[in-house]
């Protein structure tokens, strides 16, 4: 079905989608409040980049800590807007009969992806503050693979849901 002919269906958000929205927004707000609370105790230099092993490979001014929550807010806002236009996404075998189901699955994918991205940026904010204060609490080399695994699991779960 061509994008021009796709039906524009108004589908209310599910309880899961609303819950993810609330939790991810709450996490963002908590991370911003957390940075405000620890700001005065942060050293002048904080970790701003990590290598594949989870080790700090670049340090910068403490103002850089705001970059992570800012990215989280940008992702949350962007994906929240994107969720409102499921009829604009690309689909395989979209028909009038399956449009609602495909829109729901696609919107859920974007919603869960939004929650995962926010969680990752909040976690990295928290970790950067801890490392800056001398408390290395991270999970080291496993952080990146676990993040990727979560995204892959989401993709395959929703792909499987789409096929059924």
UniProtKB/TrEMBL annotation:
<feature type="transmembrane region" description="Helical">
    <location>
        <begin position="146"/>
        <end position="163"/>
    </location>
</feature>
<keyword id="KW-0812">Transmembrane</keyword>
<keyword id="KW-1133">Transmembrane helix</keyword>
<feature type="transmembrane region" description="Helical">
    <location>
        <begin position="20"/>
        <end position="39"/>
    </location>
</feature>
<feature type="transmembrane region" description="Helical">
    <location>
        <begin position="64"/>
        <end position="82"/>
    </location>
</feature>
<feature type="domain" description="DUF1648">
    <location>
        <begin position="27"/>
        <end position="72"/>
    </location>
</feature>
<dbReference type="Pfam" id="PF07853">
    <property type="entry name" value="DUF1648"/>
</dbReference>
<feature type="transmembrane region" description="Helical">
    <location>
        <begin position="103"/>
        <end position="126"/>
    </location>
</feature>
<protein>
    <submittedName>
        <fullName>Membrane protein</fullName>
    </submittedName>
</protein>
<keyword id="KW-0472">Membrane</keyword>
<dbReference type="InterPro" id="IPR012867">
    <property type="entry name" value="DUF1648"/>
</dbReference>
């Amino acid at each position: 079905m061509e994008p021009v002919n796709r039906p524009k269906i108004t589908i209310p958000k599910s309880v899961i989608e609303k819950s993810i929205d609330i939790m991810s927004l709450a996490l963002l707000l908590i991370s911003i409040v957390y940075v405000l609370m620890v700001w005065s105790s942060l050293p002048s230099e904080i970790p701003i980049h990590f290598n594949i092993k989870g080790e700090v490979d670049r340090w910068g001014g403490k103002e850089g800590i705001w970059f992570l929550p800012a990215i989280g807010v940008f992702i949350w806002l962007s994906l929240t807007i994107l969720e409102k236009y499921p009829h604009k996404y690309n689909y395989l075998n979209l028909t009038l009969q399956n449009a609602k189901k495909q829109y729901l699955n696609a919107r859920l994918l974007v919603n869960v992806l939004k929650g995962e991205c926010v969680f990752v940026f909040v976690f990295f904010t928290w970790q950067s503050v801890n490392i800056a204060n001398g408390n290395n609490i991270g999970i080291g080399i496993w952080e990146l693979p676990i993040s990727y695994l979560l995204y892959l699991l989401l993709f395959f779960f929703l792909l499987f849901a789409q096929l059924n």
